[in-house]
TrEMBL record:
It comes from Cacopsylla melanoneura. The lineage of its organism: Eukaryota, Metazoa, Ecdysozoa, Arthropoda, Hexapoda. PANTHER family: PTHR45749, ZINC FINGER MYM-TYPE PROTEIN 1-LIKE. InterPro entries: RNaseH-like_sf (IPR012337). It comes from the Eukaryota. This is Zinc finger MYM-type protein 1.
Length: 121
């Protein structure tokens, strides 16, 4: 979807354009799930409310995976050893990812820069 901003109105506009391009009817929507940001989940002015106005059967459920991720991040940030551990794990993943993609010839300069920045942990 093309980005026209982060407001509920902008997200709604982008979503409706995307659905139109895909020839999908929003009235067929039966569920929606987003993070807990007010622009998405707001009961009166969030994206979920705007969709619910058009498609009353599109029930909103907060994304529990996103919420759990935020809890995990907060818990880890208070412990230097945990931060270092997860930084190490991320570097191992990136090293494997980069070596696989390098041999296949698909590596991009941007990914290399991110990897170099992360190795400073």
């Amino acid at each position: 979807m093309d980005g026209h901003g982060h407001s509920a109105e902008a997200m709604f506009y982008s979503l409706m354009n995307f659905l139109k391009e895909m020839d999908l009817d929003i009235k067929d929507c039966r569920g929606q799930s987003y993070d807990n940001a007010s622009n998405m989940s707001g009961k009166y002015n969030g994206l979920q409310a705007k969709i619910k106005e058009i498609s009353p059967h599109a029930e909103y459920v907060p994304c529990f995976a996103h919420s759990l991720n935020l809890v995990g991040q907060s818990a880890v940030e208070c412990c230097k050893e945990a931060v270092n551990f997860f930084c190490f794990i991320e570097n191992v993943y990136l090293c494997i990812f980069l070596s696989i993609n390098t041999s296949a010839g698909f590596i991009e300069e941007k990914v290399v820069r991110v990897w170099r920045e992360l190795t400073c942990c």
